[in-house]
Write a structure and sequence with these properties.
Blueprint lengths: L2 E3 L6 E3 L5 E3 L4 E3 H13 L5
Antiparallel strand pairs: 1-2, 3-4
Length: about 45
């Protein structure tokens, strides 16, 4: 069992069964991933 720590909130997450997303920067829990996705939707992309 691999335990990871969310890079945003510090919550312990595990990869098996998966309850987190894994990025180059580290693990992100599902709740923080949803919040980040919402923030990114609101930011207009520069043209």
């Amino acid at each position: 069992m691999n335990l990871w720590v969310c890079i945003f909130c510090g919550k312990k997450v595990q990869f098996d069964p998966p309850n987190c997303y894994l990025y180059d920067e580290g693990a992100v829990c599902v709740e923080c991933h949803r919040q980040q996705a919402k923030k990114e939707e609101k930011v207009p992309l520069p043209r």
